[in-house]
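Look at one record.

>
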Amino acid sequence: MISSSEYGSHSWELLVTVDHQYEEVQKEFLLRVTGDLHIGGLMLKLVEQIKISQDWSDYALWWEQKKCWLLKTHWTLDKCGVQADAKLLFTTQHKMLRLRLPNMKTVRLKVSFSSVVFKAVSDICKILNIRRSEELSLLKQSEDALKKKKKKDKTSKEPVTEDILNLCNSPVSSGLSGSPGLYSKTMTPIYDPTSGTPASATITWFSDSPLTEQNCSILALSHPICSPETLAEMYQPRTLADKAKLNAGWLDSSRSLMEQGILEDDQLLLRFKYYSFFDLNPKYDAVRINQIYEQARWAILLEEIDCTEEEMLIFAALQAYHVSKLSLSSEAQDFTSESEVDEVEAALSNLEVTLEGGNTSNTLEDITDIPKLADNLRLVRPRKLSLKTIKPYWFVFKDTSVSYFKNKESAQGEPIEKLNLKGCEVVPDVNVAAKKFGIKLLIPVADGMNEVYLRCENENQYARWMAACVLASKGKTMADSSYHPEVHKILSFLKMKNWTMSPQAVSDPESIDMKPECFVSLRFTKKYRSKQLAARILEAHQNVSQMLLVEAKLHFIQAWQSLPEFGLSYYIVRFRGSKKDDVLGVSYNRLIRIDIATGDPITTWRFSNMKQWNVNWEIRQVAIEFDQNVSIAFTCLSADCKIIHEYIGGYIFLSTRSKDQNETLDEDLFHKLTGGQE
């Protein structure tokens, strides 16, 4: 019996549904509560009524109508705003989730549905042994891709069975903290830099982890590509608007999975969201390097990023080489000696400099005399109503500007024109086979972009001038310590492109067990017959055939980073005062306004010139202020404006990383920069 005092004016009945597996036990409980009862007390009262002996520590209260967790157990019902009409669900915080990785493999594991996505991704990366989890996030598959998948499932005669790697017994899965050493190199498994497999000394690391040595190989090693037919059935964006749809599904890093409508056993994509790869090290990052390589490979095959025919053949050669190398990897790793590993590390050290993506430390040379370039180049200016004009001039590159003169003798006087390259777009215009070494410069002017081409005579001249232009566009001079590594990177990429036909290598393409259609996008399979493609890939393969497995992956990533469109995430926006839609490209260091019809850049704004940015949540408009009283505002049409706001804040957060931080993350700073105030 309930005493009359309990029926006081302050008490009321609250309905709580319990999410448990016992069918014979009731699931709905009516509890009499008061407003000053705290959440912890409510859960205790509920567990006492359920009368099931089990561990309830992972359970918490979910408020259906408000779509939020009641995790602050010391808060009272009044403080939370819970009243008699509230529908509460007592459910587990960790639930099963299927994740499709960049290598198209699906893993199934338990993830916290109550932690913010930023923390959930960090826990996932601990299970998968991927360092630098801040570079990744979770993405809902685009509607178009899902439609194509459903259409494929309907037309296929055989039932589709997906190969899923089950990692549900992980320490993180059971609600405990994961391996304590994600950001500690002493606790991170060491990999053989040659083959990417766990080194023998650290195989014991996997003994208590769901990431067994076999599972680790699935994540750290590249596997043969799917058939050309499967490739043809996958969704491929055709226009900039299609590419914008791919980026609409990023989850909000400041909210939990449950708050964003994700249900147990749903499938999400785990992807590298931010193209700023910091501190890549083959010794510790075999899984991370392989997953970046796989994301790059699929982006190229599905034409999510454009590349020339010459570049496509290089990518194909590196991929084909991976497949042939993998078949020998099990034998190769048995013969790797300590000295060979040291040689590999030495060979990769140069690559690491260019792949780090962080700020390089300034050295003494940065404050001494700034070097300059002076050379004969040809200037090409496109004309709207006539053919483009090509004229030779004497060019001088100093600081962040290029000046050109009629000849060398007149270089002491006033230049014909001085081009300030700070904030410009630099695009390679190269065809090594045709001996064409061009640099396309899109220089911001009041009414848009001024288009100028520079033509160089040879590879060395091109590498020096291209590196200078790239640095100048970021506001850096040739005195910066990153200039010489940039020259080296450009020359190594040109060297890969510069192959000559060897009759021995391509005399009989059919003798090589290779389906060339698996390594190039559909555009090229339609253009060439299979034999022609195989021959051309084998030609290109000669320049990469001596590379080690991990080295080839890093070269692939480096070549991907050299593409003009690398790192751009597209969104359809409407700028304030404009009557038509535009595309906004978000990159690691800039924003680009792009004409949606032609794909031409209109204006570029650098993050380094940004003073502040904010969002008007009522009208969903992003407003940004730059130096020199430049301000822009736009509404996002293809996605929620919070996604762009988070992208900008995320890239600024990543630019603050340094090796001196002992690899710890300031999560509060990330949320301050990306969260916004809704």
Q: What stands out?
A: The mean pLDDT is 81.
